[in-house]
Design a protein that fits this description.
Layout lengths: L12 H12 L10 H12 L4 H8 L1 H11 L3 E2 L12 E2 L4 H8 L16 H16 L2 H8 L20 H13 L3 H16 L7 H20 L5 H8 L3 H4 L4
Antiparallel strand pairs: 1-2
């Protein structure tokens, strides 16, 4: 739950008072806003119209994906981090995330993936893609398998150790939610940025984003029902898994 100044609107007047009352009563007012809405509010609150805001929006996909990947579990302060380094608590707002993201305890490129390794990020993305692609019946069988039976989808998530919070959240954000298609596209983009060693916001990052946008549009032109994240993962499997490279 977000506490204190949530950053979701005025902190004075009637709107601010209502937000403070809801926070005090244990309600998460920030949860009423989607991650994308939270980003827009953050950008409006902390930047002026112009080059800096434009630059922030240019990094929106990578920042939002790192935020969403971490939201169900949070990230503790790294061992040995300097005094004042901030943790990111589970369920925190995008503003909370940015406070931790700017903390010296985090590596910007590694933030969001266990150990900061691209391989673990890909494994997590594969599990997210599997969750998002399930039918309602399949998701029910995965979350609540019949007694005495082997979970028919357990193999797809081997080694990920997803918590129930992650399973529900990723299913909604990447499978059934209003922004699921865009989130799948952005997650594929984050993986490719890491695969190419691109720094968020840099010239290489911009080039990678432009190229992926072309691939996305071409794929949908051929198949309007295509799942871009599944397509991307199938085309970028490690060489040892396919024998053909990428």
């Amino acid at each position: 739950m977000v506490t204190g100044n949530t950053g979701y609107g005025p902190t004075s007047g009637a709107s601010g008072q209502i937000g403070d009352l809801l926070d005090a009563a244990g309600f998460d007012i920030g949860g009423a806003f989607s991650p994308a809405q939270q980003f827009r509010q953050y950008a409006t609150q902390y930047t002026q119209p112009g080059l800096m805001r434009n630059a922030l929006y240019g990094m929106q996909p990578q920042m939002l994906q790192r935020y969403m990947l971490n939201l169900p579990t949070g990230v503790p302060t790294a061992p040995g981090a300097p005094t004042g380094a901030l943790p990111f608590e589970a369920g925190g707002s995008f503003q909370d995330f940015m406070g931790a993201y700017g903390s010296p305890s985090y590596s910007p490129m590694g933030f969001g993936f266990t150990g900061g390794e691209a391989s673990s990020g890909r494994r997590l993305a594969e599990a997210i893609a599997a969750l998002g692609s399930m039918t309602g019946a399949q998701f029910g069988a995965y979350m609540q398998p019949d007694a005495g039976t082997v979970n028919p989808y357990a193999a797809a998530f081997a080694g990920t150790n997803l918590t129930p919070q992650q399973q529900y959240f990723y299913r909604q954000q990447y499978g059934t939610g209003q922004d699921a298609e865009e989130n799948r596209r952005q997650l594929a983009g984050l993986l490719e940025q890491q695969r190419m060693g691109a720094t968020p916001g840099g010239l290489l990052s911009q080039a990678v984003t432009g190229g992926l946008n072309e691939l996305y549009e071409n794929l949908l032109a051929r198949d309007p029902t295509a799942n871009f994240l599944n397509w991307y993962l199938s085309r970028t499997r490690p060489a040892e898994a396919t024998g053909t490279g990428t």
